[in-house]
Amino acid sequence: MPTTATPATPAPTPTEPAAPASTEAATPTEAAAHFRAALRFHTDVADVAAALAAPGGPGFVLLDSRSTHSWDQGHIPGAVHLPTALIPEQAPALLDRSVLVVTYCWGPGCNGATRAALALAELGYQVREMLGGFEYWVREGLAHETWQGPERRDADPLAAPVAGACGC
After folding, report:
1. Could you give the CA distance from residue 147 to residue 150 in angstroms, rounded to a whole number?
2. Interacting residues of 160 by C-beta distance below 8 A, sequence separation 6+
3. Separation of alpha carbons 140 and 157, rounded Å
4. Mind listing the pLDDT tens digit for each residue in 27-81?
5. Number of neighbouring beta carbons within 10 Å of residue 137
6. 140-154 b/e with 16+ CB inside 10 Å = b?
7. What pLDDT was estimated at residue 167?
8. How far apart (Å, rounded) are the C-alpha atoms in residues 103 and 62?
9. For residue 120, which of 167, 80, 73, 71 has the smallest C-alpha distance?
10. CA-based angle 72:103:130, to the nearest 5?
11. By three-state DSSP, how is residue 160 classified?
12. Runs of H (alpha helix) within 26-154
């Protein structure tokens, strides 16, 4: 049986040329102010782990803002579980406004920790977001808990130093 070819549909042509990528950089003063501010809003997995292990406690409450199903899959030992949607009604009973709260969610591809941090800030809490989330906690080989009990996986060499600290 003979086949008939379907003509290819031509790609649409843009009506305007694409704008070139910006090459304008911030001044060193602007960049320093931006990065100084970023360090006030963010922390990372290694710094949180070190603070949790420090004598006298971390000086903050670690908050997992994911669903109960996600919490049961795995969470950081010592974290408080409070899904983002429940923050407005439950945060006042669970969290002290005088204590810093560090939020986390799944990982860098998720903005749940950002949304949780915003909800807490709007309620008057001091808050920071843990970059990397639960994904990088596990990928760095740190202990975590599941509904079945404690777990720990080997560190992923693409996400954590194989030996010692990263030096940053």
Report:
1. 9
2. 139, 140, 141, 166
3. 8
4. 999 999 999 999 999 999 999 999 999 999 999 999 999 999 999 999 999 999 9
5. 23
6. bbbebbeeeeeeeee
7. 67
8. 6
9. 80
10. 105
11. coil
12. 28-41, 45-53, 68-73, 87-94, 112-122, 133-139
Percent composition of the chain: helix, strand, coil (DSSP 3-state, to 5): 35, 15, 50
Helix-helix angle 112-122:87-94, to 10 degrees: 70
| Sheet containing 42-44, strands listed edge to edge, beginning at the edge strand earlier in sequence | 42-44, 127-131, 100-104, 60-64, 80-81
pLDDT tens, position by position, 143-163? 999 999 999 999 898 887 766
* Partners of 81 in beta bridges: 64
Residue type, 130: M
Q: How many Å is the Cα radius of gyration of the chain?
A: 22
The pair of three-digit structure tokens given for residue 147, joined into one six-digit string? 């509904």
100 forms bridges with which residues in the sheet?
A: 60
Two structure tokens written together for 61: 């409450």
pTM (global) more than 0.70? yes
Residue 9 has pLDDT above 60, yes or no: no
Strand partners, 60: 100
Predicted local confidence at residue 15, as pLDDT: 60
